[in-house]
Design goal:
The complex is a heterodimer of chains A (about 450) and B (about 500).
Chain A lengths: L2 E4 L5 E2 L6 H9 L5 E6 L2 H15 L6 E2 L4 H6 L2 H15 L3 E6 L1 H6 L3 H11 L7 E5 L8 H16 L11 E6 L5 H13 L3 E4 L3 H4 L18 H5 L6 E5 L4 H11 L3 E4 L5 H15 L5 H21 L3 E5 L2 H13 L3 E7 L13 E4 L2 H7 L5 E4 L4 H7 L3 E3 L17 H18 L17 H6 L1
Parallel strand pairs in A: 1-13, 3-4, 3-5, 5-6, 7-8, 7-9, 9-10, 11-12, 11-14, 12-13, 14-15
Chain B lengths: L1 H11 L5 H4 L3 H6 L15 H9 L6 E5 L2 H5 L19 E2 L4 H6 L2 H15 L4 E5 L1 H5 L4 H12 L3 E4 L8 H15 L13 E7 L6 H11 L2 E7 L4 H5 L6 E5 L5 H11 L3 E4 L4 H17 L5 H28 L3 E5 L4 H10 L4 E6 L5 H11 L5 E2 L4 H9 L5 E4 L4 H6 L4 E3 L10 H16 L3 H6 L3 H7 L1 H10 L9 H12 L1
Parallel strand pairs in B: 1-2, 1-3, 3-4, 5-6, 5-7, 7-8, 9-10, 9-12, 10-11, 12-13
Helix pairs in contact in B: 4-10, 7-9, 10-13, 14-15, 15-20, 16-17, 22-23, 23-24
Classes of the chains: A alpha/beta (about 450), B alpha/beta (about 500).
The complex binds iron/sulfur cluster (SF4).
Iron/sulfur cluster sits at the interface of chains B and A.
């Protein structure tokens, strides 16, 4: 439906996009005892760290190979080896997830080769998982980095199954547009059908903001390596978001586990399909709890549609989030008047609007002038102020609000929450008519007349 | 690249830095930063430092030449405040792509500058070099020169790609860019014998404004603050100041010293943190100005103002003395803050149980000893795990640090206060000191501490087997629910 356009500007103004390596690093944070490692100069890591700390308000495990100028020219084997050894010694991780950066990709470091060499030279590290994802900063965006890291984890850590599938075990591959709160919600839904999900990556266990009994320098929780290894014994893989298709396919190719991809889990119909699938798989009826939630969502949609109907929305988000929320808003009667995103995705052209632009927040600002609502991550705050638009924060980073990790957009319950939160915002910013609102175009305003 | 490396050598050769002068030639070449440890380090890069130092110039467009990582992951994250233009808060980046990496990004850079000039018409554009374009050989100096000529506007190259070193080096390279391209390029409309520069103050959370009213009252004009709440033309004409204060940091010492050398502007190093230091700084400013031709009566007026403000501040602090006496503070911060803040805290009777000196110079450490005595607890390097242990064992009552380690304290259920650059509260001058103590008191005495430190009631119940069995029997728990009682039952079964 939509035509996908790329911004022609040379200069990006007010970036909407974040880089691939930090997306990859976040994926690694969903594994228990994990330490993500960016292979690059230290600043890249430091910025990533600050970004996540501000968003999640949690300690963030993230390390760097600290490539200096000289090391960059000579190649980074020593730095990678040193980093792995230091991390192994200092933090005793179960997994070190390595992401490349623009610096090391420009040089062309063969990190896969480095890992083979490290394995040879250091048999004492055999118990530590080493996974490498190629994530150059000068290509793609955050969600591509996340997708790459998950795919590589599947390829390296999942074992080819030796026995039959375990009854009731399912894999859940959530895209990076899902918050820890979203993942928790999905886990509960799946478990309500008596199914046992293995979630990769599981941020709901590692970055959900809880107080641990002891301090660990690696991740606080997340999927265990053993669980990941056993993902091949699942009956089915549920992937959420188009970005997870490669990972789901890789899992299928390696283990034979079939997958279903849910492009979104925001909205009534989307969740109906999800629950139907779970019901079929488990052979159990949809639990009463969700029947009730569904009817609550219906009621919320009925109450809310007055305010959403005809509302012009300016939306800036990564493709999967854009698609999920954009489609849902359209279902509520909104008009997606401006849509800006960060990277390519087959979903973009299926968005219910005329045009999707791969661009920045300046582009969104130019298109949002006569909109009624702005939805994007926290960086939209400046443009919301300039345009005096009601502003709903969605996505990462959300550094100026509490509880970003628990924002809910999936399930009947999450969708209902969105109806209320966005609806209330629209309600609060309703337009009060003034005497000049319906003035005819050719008739000069009274004030001007008097002034003349 | 060669101009950059000679500039770095020049910066490393800082004669204003005693530590540096104590080194052999060979050592000095290595610079003032330790080689970074892969897998054990995570500070900002030189680009980060350069941006921190210059971004507070508010009416300039700050354009980052590089892939999305450098700006996309970091923009809009600093609290430098502006009294006017908001352009400095706009994120500009060339966001170079694969094609640029292969064929070079100079063209995109040039076009980007043109777009910025067309759309935003700033008085100047600052262009920041980052690692990837530096690797592929993009010459930003040449592009900036061409753009500057073409568009008739200063386009200032800031050559500090991240991988040449740490933040601190980036601060200095930013200073070099100002010295080379900005300072001295414009004449002020008029000058007075009361004109000063403040160097190395970034107006974080508006701290400059906590000090400026005092200077205003004394009739002292800030000709330029480098770079807090500065406008481009102010920096450009800063060479006409009579004296300068370098704000308690060696970060911009090269700027202070070279301005002294080139333009005969004497400077001193002072701090706006703490009552005593604030007063000393005011005295020093007055002294230098009088030396350079201001009327001697400035000294009396300064003393009168100091007496009045100190009395006011002490009176405001009085109520806190009793509440804070004997409370122990763990201070985890870099560089000069390790001593400038220590002095401030001790003024109200807080006990410093440890201060990190990881990023401090030898001189900083001397100052700490001076203030805290020979027994000063200087912490060279503390892992988060050790910090956590220290706090959970309650060997400190509160931790002061930068935002990144705050959760180490909070997870240990201990109070924490931000004293680094992302902080939201201004702590400078007399009013800032009072605010800092007020905030510290609020953090320490918040009623939440008692609640969050009390264990869940069922833990006590669990301790007595009998009682919890009883609970488990009475509440079998709804199916599929996750009530805490179920947890108790499961627990008992597991241990039975
Ligand atoms: S280290 Fe280099 S690539 Fe990384 S953020 Fe700093 S300037 Fe950018």
């Amino acid at each position: 439906m939509a035509s996908v356009v790329k911004s022609k500007k040379a200069c990006t103004v007010n970036p909407l996009k974040m880089s691939q390596p930090v997306g990859g690093a976040l994926a690694f944070m969903g594994v228990r005892g994990s330490m993500p490692l960016l292979h690059g100069s230290q600043g890249c890591t430091s910025f990533g760290l600050v970004l996540f700390v501000r968003h999640f308000r949690e300690s963030i495990p993230l390390q760097t190979t600290a490539m200096s100028e000289v090391a960059t020219v000579l190649g980074g084997y020593e730095n990678v080896e040193q980093a792995v050894l230091n991390i192994a010694q200092r933090t005793q991780p179960s997994l070190i997830g390595i992401c490349s950066t623009g610096v090391t990709e420009t040089k062309g470091d063969d990190v896969e080769g480095f890992i083979t060499l490290i394995r040879e030279r250091h048999p004492e590290l055999a118990h530590i998982g080493l996974v490498y994802a190629s994530t150059p900063d000068f290509k793609g965006a955050f969600q591509d980095g996340w997708a790459a890291a998950v795919t590589r984890m599947v390829e390296t850590l999942v074992e080819v199954p030796t026995g039959p599938p375990r009854r009731g075990q399912v894999n859940l591959l959530p895209g990076c547009h899902l918050t820890p709160g979203d993942i928790e919600e999905l886990r509960e839904i799946i478990e309500a059908f008596g199914l046992a999900p293995v979630i990769l990556p599981d941020l709901s266990d590692s970055l959900d903001g809880h107080i641990p009994d002891d301090f660990t320098p690696t991740t606080l929780g997340g999927t265990t390596l053993a669980d990941i290894a056993g993902m091949g014994r699942s009956e089915l893989t549920l992937a959420v978001g188009e970005q997870m298709r490669p990972a789901a396919a890789a899992l299928g190719a390696k283990t034979g586990v079939p997958y279903v991809l849910f492009e979104r889990l925001t909205g009534l119909v989307a969740n109906d399909a999800f629950l139907m699938r779970l019901s079929e798989l488990s052979g159990r009826p949809v639990p009463a709890k969700y029947r009730r939630q569904r009817s609550q969502l219906e009621d919320a949609m009925l109450d809310g549609h007055f305010f959403f109907g005809g509302c012009k929305v300016a939306l800036g988000a990564e493709p999967d989030l854009l698609y999920a929320v954009g489609s849902f808003l359209a279902e509520m009667g909104c008009q997606i008047a401006a849509a800006v995103t960060t990277t390519e995705s087959p979903l973009l052209e299926r968005l219910p609007c005329d045009e999707v632009l791969i661009g920045d927040l300046e582009d969104l600002e130019q298109r949002a002038g006569d909109c009624d609502l702005l939805i994007t991550h926290a960086h939209g705050r400046q443009l919301a102020e300039r345009l005096q638009l009601p502003f709903f924060r969605l996505g990462l980073p959300m550094f100026d609000r509490l509880g970003a990790a628990h924002q809910l957009t999936v399930g009947y319950r999450g969708t209902r929450g969105l109806v209320f939160d966005i609806g209330n915002l629209l309600l609060a910013h309703g337009h009060e008519p003034g005497p000049d609102d319906w003035r005819l175009a050719h008739e000069p305003a009274a004030a001007t007349l008097a002034a003349d | 690249m060669s101009t950059l490396s000679s500039k770095i050598q020049d910066v490393f050769n800082e004669p204003g830095c005693d530590k540096n002068q104590g080194k052999s030639d060979k050592e000095r070449k290595k610079g003032c930063t330790k080689q970074l440890q892969p897998g054990g380090a995570a500070g900002g890069c030189a680009f980060d430092g350069a941006k921190i130092a210059l971004q507070p110039i508010t009416d300039v467009a700050h354009l980052v030449h590089g892939p999305i990582a450098c700006e996309g992951n970091s923009w809009d994250n600093r609290g430098a405040k502006s009294s006017g233009s908001r352009l400095y808060r706009t994120g500009f980046t060339t966001d170079i792509n694969e094609t640029d990496v292969v064929f070079g990004g100079e063209k995109r850079l040039y076009k980007s500058i043109r777009e910025i000039v067309d759309k935003y018409d700033p008085p100047a554009v600052f262009v920041y070099q980052t690692c990837v374009p530096a690797m592929i050989g993009d010459d930003i100096e040449v592009v900036c020169k061409a753009a500057s000529e073409k568009f008739g506007k200063p386009v200032v190259p800031v050559n500090a790609p991240g991988f040449v070193g740490v933040k601190n080096l980036g601060n200095k390279l930013a200073g070099e860019a100002l010295l080379e391209h900005v300072i001295g390029t414009r004449e002020p409309d008029y000058t007075t014998p009361y004109d000063i520069n403040i160097i190395g103050e970034y107006n974080l959370a508006g701290e400059l404004w906590q000090v400026k009213p005092l200077l205003d009252e004394l009739g002292i004009r800030v000709l330029a603050c480098i770079s807090g709440d500065a406008k481009y033309h102010e920096v450009a004409q800063s060479h006409r100041a009579r004296a300068a204060m370098m704000v308690c940091s060696k970060a911009m010492i090269n700027v202070s010293r070279k301005m002294e050398e080139r333009y005969g502007i004497p400077f001193f190093e002072g701090s706006f943190y703490g009552i005593g230091d604030m007063s000393d700084s005011l005295r020093e400013i007055a002294r230098l100005l009088i030396e350079r031709g201001a009327d001697a009566e400035l000294s009396d007026r300064t003393e009168a103002l100091i007496a009045r403000e100190e009395a006011r501040a002490w009176a405001a602090l009085e109520p806190y003395r009793e509440r804070l006496a004997g409370k122990r503070v763990l201070l985890i911060t870099g560089g000069v803050k390790s001593w400038s803040v220590v002095a401030a805290l001790q003024e109200v009777g807080l006990e410093i149980v440890g201060t990190s000196v990881k990023k401090s110079t030898r001189e900083d450490k001397e100052r700490i000893k001076e203030i805290m005595g020979e027994e000063a607890h200087m912490i060279e390097d503390m892992t988060p795990r050790e910090m956590y242990r220290m706090l959970s064992e309650a060997r400190a009552d509160i931790m002061l640090s930068g935002g990144r380690s705050q959760f180490v304290a909070l997870k240990a259920k201990m109070p924490w206060m931000d004293i680094n650059q992302e902080r939201h509260h201004a702590f400078a001058g007399y009013v800032g000191m009072v605010e800092m103590i007020r905030r510290l008191d609020l953090a320490l005495h918040n009623p939440i501490w008692q609640q969050v430190r009390t264990p869940a009631p069922w833990l006590a119940a669990e301790a007595s087997n009998l009682r919890s069995l009883d609970v488990a029997q009475r509440n079998p728990g709804p199916s599929g629910g996750t009530s805490p009682d179920l947890g108790v039952t499961a627990c008992l079964q597991a241990t039975a």
